[in-house]
């Protein structure tokens, strides 16, 4: 770095366009920040001539987006301190263990699965599981909307943290745009830690990452699970959002989850730990832009969250939940489980760094959890298709 604060030029990214031409982004350190100083698409004229109209428009869009990059190109933090953390194994003294322990003891070497075909029931099950937790909650999601169901679950997580539950929340960063302030406030709770999978380096102008680092950004985490006290887990195809839980007025997605108990819960926890401690997962705290949330902000958010929860409790949606059998259950032992062998399949957290599909597969073979197919055959010989925690949305 020179005395003027201007560093040398360096090639930040190269991309091959659909025509085979090359786009090169050049950056330079200026007064402590890395700035885009040149973006060149070689032989642009012939590139335009060789493209059909739709692709010409797409290329123009690329050029327009590149202009946004003039605000700066960022890189992910280096030397990030990730404190290793793992599922707590000693949860035999918890309420959930007392509920499901006798069931699992009566079905040695088998796991129990209760399907959740209805969205409203799946939401009620998640709320119940959070309220039952006494020691730990591990949550891993691709999408978490800030809507009715998303806000209610945030409120319930904060309540759980208030009573001493350790909460680890792992989110794919693709859906966190515009939510940094919200997430930092939740992350400020001493019993909650939020981490992001394969995050965007540029928090405010994400299109820059899409253009200059698209190969990495394209790899996302589609796993979806919530596990309480390492005793009961809910996993499957649903993200967190009104459209997944029959709470949306305009859009609704038909999907499937299962409540699971038995040895499969430990495997789901192992998969969560594999992601949580991955080099591709970053603590949200390393992306603080300016001062950390102040006490006044946190208090205001908690107050608003409680007020929203109070209003939600009188909504038609919650009234409908109260009529469900799921809402009337005293515990998870009362569910009707199908017992059988299982095979767990999950996404590989190392895929952003893989150079090929084969490389990603070989890397998955070195992990501590099996990555195979997804069929459950129950004891009574019925065959059912169980949803994977990495079912794509």
CATH class of the largest domain, anyone?
A: Alpha Beta
Percent of residues in helical segments?
25-40%
End-to-end distance, in Å? 46 Å
Low-pLDDT stretches are 16-21, 36-45, 359-393
Major sheet: order of its strands?
11-7-6-5-8-9-10-4-12-13-14
Structural domains: how many? 2
Strand content: 15-25%
Number of helices, where a helix is a run of at least 4 consecutive DSSP H or I residues = 13
CATH-derived architecture of the largest domain: 2-Layer Sandwich
- What class, by secondary structure content? alpha+beta
Please report the total strand number as a whole number.
Answer: 14
The rough form would be described as globular
CATH topology of the largest domain: Endonuclease, Chain A
Largest sheet: 11 strands, mixed
Give the CATH H-level superfamily of the largest domain: Endonuclease Chain A
Report on this structure.
The strands form 2 sheets. This protein has an 11-stranded mixed sheet, with helices on both faces. A 3-stranded antiparallel sheet has the order 1-2-3, with no helix packed on it. The protein folds into 2 domains: 6-71, no CATH class; 95-385, 2-Layer Sandwich (Endonuclease, Chain A), CATH 3.30.870.10. The model is unreliable at 16-21, 36-45 and 359-393 (pLDDT under 50). 34% of the residues lie in helices and 21% in strands. The chain is globular, with a radius of gyration of 23 Å. α4 (119-132) packs parallel to α5 (148-162). The protein has helices spanning 44-49, 53-68, 95-106, 119-132, 148-162, 180-187, 207-212, 214-217, 263-276, 295-313, 316-322, 325-328, 357-364; strands at 6-16, 22-30, 33-41, 111-116, 136-141, 166-172, 192-197, 225-228, 232-236, 257-261, 281-283, 338-341, 375-378, 383-385. The two termini are 46 Å apart. With 393 residues, the chain is an alpha+beta fold. The chain has 13 helices and 14 strands.
């Amino acid at each position: 770095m020179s005395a003027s604060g201007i560093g040398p030029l360096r090639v930040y990214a190269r991309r091959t366009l659909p025509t085979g031409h090359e786009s090169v982004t050049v950056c330079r350190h200026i007064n402590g920040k890395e700035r885009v100083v040149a973006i060149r698409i070689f032989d642009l004229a012939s590139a335009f001539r060789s493209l059909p109209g739709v692709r010409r428009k797409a290329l123009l869009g690329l050029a327009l987006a590149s202009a946004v990059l003039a605000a700066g190109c960022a890189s992910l933090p280096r030397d990030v301190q990730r404190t290793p953390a793992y599922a707590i194994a000693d949860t035999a003294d918890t309420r959930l263990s007392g509920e499901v322990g006798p069931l699992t003891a009566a079905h040695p070497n088998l796991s129990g699965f209760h399907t959740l075909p209805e969205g409203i029931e799946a939401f009620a099950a998640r709320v119940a599981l959070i309220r039952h937790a006494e020691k730990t909650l591990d949550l891993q999601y691709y999408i978490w909307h800030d809507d009715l169901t998303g806000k209610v679950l945030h409120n319930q997580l904060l309540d759980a943290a208030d009573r001493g539950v350790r909460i680890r929340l792992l989110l794919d960063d693709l859906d966190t745009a515009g939510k940094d302030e919200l997430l930092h406030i939740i992350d400020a709770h001493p019993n909650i830690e939020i981490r992001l999978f394969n995050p965007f380096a540029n928090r405010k102008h994400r299109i820059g990452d899409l253009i200059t680092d698209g190969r990495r950004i394209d790899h996302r985490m589609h796993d979806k699970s919530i596990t309480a006290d390492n005793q009961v887990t809910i996993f499957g195809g649903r993200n967190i959002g009104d459209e997944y839980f029959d709470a949306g007025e305009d859009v609704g997605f038909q999907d499937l989850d299962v409540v699971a108990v038995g040895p499969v819960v430990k495997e789901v926890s192992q998969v969560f730990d594999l992601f949580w401690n991955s080099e591709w997962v970053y603590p949200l705290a390393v992306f603080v832009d300016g001062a950390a949330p102040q006490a006044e902000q946190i208090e205001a958010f908690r107050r608003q969250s409680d007020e929203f929860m109070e209003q939600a409790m009188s909504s038609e949606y919650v009234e409908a939940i109260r009529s469900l059998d799921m809402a009337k259950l005293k515990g998870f032992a009362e569910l009707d489980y199908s017992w059988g062998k299982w095979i767990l399949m999950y996404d590989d957290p190392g895929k952003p760094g893989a150079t090929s599909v084969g490389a990603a597969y070989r890397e998955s073979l070195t992990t501590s959890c099996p990555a195979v197919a997804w069929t459950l055959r129950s004891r009574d010989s019925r065959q059912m298709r169980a949803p994977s925690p990495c079912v794509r949305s």
